[in-house]
Amino acid sequence: MKKFFFILTFASLCMVAYSQTNNDADTAKNLKTIKEVIKDSREGVEFIDNTELIKCINANPKLILLDVRNKEEYDAGHLKGATWLERGLVEYTMARTLREPNAEIIVYCAKGNRSAQVVKVLKNMGYKNVKSHIGLEKWAEEGYSIYNYLGEIKVVKLREVNSATNPINYYLDKK
Description:
It is built from 7 helices and 7 strands; from the N terminus they run ααβαβαβαβαβαββ. The protein is of the alpha/beta class. The strands form 2 sheets. A 5-stranded parallel beta sheet has the order 1-5-4-2-3. The longest helix has 27 residues, at 2-28. The chain is globular, with a radius of gyration of 22 Å.
């Protein structure tokens, strides 16, 4: 009897896997484009510009400024006084280390897309005073300084390749 149930269960799983494989071609057209993903990530998030960020920095010495880009981006240059917590790890670190639901938190990344996703996660966790900055690129474009281990940096020209425009080849030779 156990063999019968095992075979029945296995057959059912195979049928589900087969039907999903056959439906993949049909559902691929339903995948979101990069523009749709960005729009969804930013929806419902409050953004502040450079002028507002400077006001917040000047008004609150306990302001938490989070850089959620990857480590290489942060090391290359970041806002003065920013804490690096890479997107995807923020919620785990903050749940353990920042137990102040009313702390003023401003999150930033290069363009505001990753930071918007983090803002949504933090609000969902219960933090009440969380906003996204419009992006480090806008900060640098307006002539404000960024910092790294060498000190203060003025950006002359930003690189044109980013996470949305980086050329990808998924099908490189693996042998």
